[in-house]
Design goal:
heterodimer, A: mainly alpha, minor pseudopilin epsh fold, 4 strands, globular, B: mainly alpha, Helix Hairpins, 2 domains
């Protein structure tokens, strides 16, 4: 359904039409392409088949080419002609995070940011363990790297429905956190270091219901620890 | 008394081509089964709640012990919603309801096509994981809505809508991703060919006493 048709339906508003809070964004479903807007879809930092066999080229073609692109398109649509369109993405996310009336903008802007961060959190031949200060910080927070992996996989599994699992730095200490739907550490005073997408679209073609196998493959074979170390600074 | 996973009321491939066999197999045997198992595991911690039915659990979430309340909400909802979902689908189904239900749909939404459009819009617009519903609201009127996660209209006071469910479509990505990927609207469009309206009519009659 196109956005315009949907709005017509919603505006018709007969008794009993109720939508969930934040539920008026045809999030990953809009098929229209839009004219270039204020927010751009960043290039994928690797070829679509670079993460095989752990993430298939087919999954990435939908995940980047459809889902991520649709969030960008929707964000441009929902901010067109508003002051938000002139702001940096991270500012848009922070400004709309607590405004229920701006849930559509928040959901789409945060999902644009989360996905861009997710792509950077992976590389071909990734995985293994970080070195240097990041390794020390992980040992301090989780005992050892195995403790981190356990916490990260468990949080990924514990996220009910759609969401994300993150390694973050907060008040000088590392933590594993999970966020629901489009929610992001950016609006919780945390610095994101690494993320894995646990929306079903991230893994369903390759792993179906086996989310645990996907998150373990992310840690073992895809995690880009150089990127995470850069974020830690 | 553990909660049980009902068998599918048809073969895994019965809903082809609108719902493919692999999707139905995973959806029932893995996802639906996991909700049943998780619910039983949660209730094992408070055996006095294990004899309650799903409806009673969902209607009284505030009374459920806090340490299992979220698990019960998610997994009783996941169990009950899927029970209803499978039960309302059938091979060689679709079309339109008859009798009083059709008349009331026309009265509430204009005509059947307008009803379909509104139902589709609600299901497509539900952000992330959730369900689209036709239900009788607390004023006794037909209504369309959507819920996040596994919430449903029986979770009075907890869910964003309240009433008696009549029809439901699953818009978690696992319901359609193998066949439709990001095209949720196409999946919801095909769903109309699978609805067993006799069952929906039965629910409507029962709900209205």
């Amino acid at each position: 359904m196109k956005r315009r048709e949907f709005l017509t339906v919603a505006a018709a508003g007969s008794a009993g039409v109720l939508l969930a809070p934040g539920g008026i964004v045809p999030a990953a479903q809009a098929v229209e392409t839009t004219a270039p807007g204020a927010f751009a879809l960043p290039a994928l930092p690797f070829a679509e088949n670079a993460l095989e066999p752990f993430i298939s080229a087919r999954t990435l073609s939908f995940h980047y080419g459809k889902h991520h692109k649709t969030y960008v398109d929707n964000l441009n649509k929902f901010t067109a002609g508003t002051p938000l369109a002139k702001l940096p993405l991270e500012v848009v996310i922070k400004e709309t995070a607590t405004d229920a009336g701006k849930a559509s903008v928040f959901n789409n802007s945060a999902q644009v940011w989360n996905h861009t961060f997710f792509w950077r959190s992976m590389k071909a031949g990734g995985g293994g363990q970080p070195g240097g200060n990041l390794h020390k910080q992980i040992e301090k927070a989780f005992g050892d790297f195995a403790g981190f992996k356990k916490a990260f996989v468990e949080a990924g599994l514990a996220q009910f429905g759609s969401g994300w699992v993150w390694l973050v730095s907060e008040s000088g200490a590392l933590k594993v956190v999970k966020t629901a739907n489009a929610d992001t550490p950016l609006v919780h005073g945390q610095k994101a270091l690494l993320t894995c997408d646990v929306w079903e679209h991230a893994y369903y073609l390759d792993y179906q219901n086996r989310r645990k196998d996907f998150v373990e493959a992310f840690v073992d074979h895809l995690a880009n620890w150089d990127f995470a170390a850069q974020q830690l600074g | 008394m553990p909660i049980k996973l009902p068998d599918l009321p048809y073969a895994y491939n019965a809903l082809e081509p609108f719902m493919d066999e692999q999707t139905v197999r995973l959806h029932h045997d893995k996802h639906h089964a996991a909700y049943v198992n998780n619910l039983n595991a949660a209730l094992d911690k408070h055996p006095e709640w294990h004899n309650k039915g799903l409806e009673e659990l969902m209607a009284n979430l505030k009374a459920v012990p806090e340490d299992i309340r979220t698990a019960v909400r998610n997994n009783a909802g996941g169990t009950w919603n899927h029970n209803l979902y499978w039960d309302l689908l059938a091979a060689n189904a679709g079309g339109q309801p008859g009798g009083e239900l059709l008349a009331d749909i026309q009265k509430s939404f204009g005509d059947f096509a307008a009803f379909q459009q509104k139902f589709n819009a609600a299901a497509v617009a539900q952000f992330a994981s959730g369900w689209g519903w036709l239900f009788i609201d607390d004023k006794g009127k037909l209504a369309i809505g959507s819920t996040p996660g596994h919430d449903n209209p029986l979770m009075s006071g907890a869910a964003n809508i309240s009433g008696k469910p009549l029809l439901v479509v699953d818009v978690w990505e696992h319901a359609y991703y193998l066949k439709f990927q990001n095209r949720r609207a196409d999946f919801v469009g095909g769903f109309w060919s699978l609805i067993n309206w006799k069952k929906v009519e039965g629910l409507y009659a029962a709900a209205r006493g």
